[in-house]
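User: My collaborator sent over this chain with a note saying "see what the structure looks like." That's all I know about it. Can you take a look?
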Amino acid sequence: MATGKPLALVTGASSGIGYELAKVFAENGYDLVIAAEDAGIVEAKQAFESMGATVESVRVDLTKPAGVEDLWRRTQALGRPLEAAAINAGVGLGGPFKDNDLDRELEIVDLNCRSVVHLSKLVVRDMTQRGRGRILFTSSIASTMPGPFLAVYAASKSFDQSFAQALRNELKDSGVTVTALMPGPTDTKFFERADMEDTKVGASPNDDPAQVARQGFEALIAGKDHVVAGSIKNRIQATAAKVIPETVKAGIHRKEAEPGSADK
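Assistant: Without extra context I'll predict from the sequence alone. Here is the result:
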């Protein structure tokens, strides 16, 4: 796999923002290691190879520690320095916390938080040893507010945002940069998978994942600490979130995410 191109790792790359991130890396001359738990990762590999990238695809469940270790072992086995990592894989679940399935909510914690820490540990140690590298964490505009009817997901993204910013500060003199990608509602399979198609936010027109990915990639290459991607509305919301009380933000989120709100 020694092609002379830089190598990037992208998780959650079979669809949505992750797919578009991998695509923009390929468009900009990177070879890829892509990972996802579903069979769509095979089609993604073929698509990126048709663009001239050399691609290692890994079908793996990152909610399990063994899955993270397997992905890293496959990446290391290529014998090439990892220049960039987009730690993007994530899931959500809408609905009342008291009614939601506990196992599904714990999977959110496992994927959005635990696996992020686990994979980051491996990536950071590798990059800091070499004194160079770029890491992109997919956070969310949801990290800026409490998330009624999306409580565990919103909390997990607050974790990711804080974690990314803390690592950026720790690594500021290491040659490794950390960037947080903060998309708003995006036109992916997220709302379908999260059982939120009957919500106001799920039924509304949402941002283009290709645009979100391009903005994330550009921020990563520029070494920015974060980027609020997508529409101008998202940037206004992120700015307003700094001064609006938490109780007010929770009320705003409730109107968007409450089951049945699409018809209100």
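A starting point for your reply to your collaborator: The chain has ten helices and seven strands.
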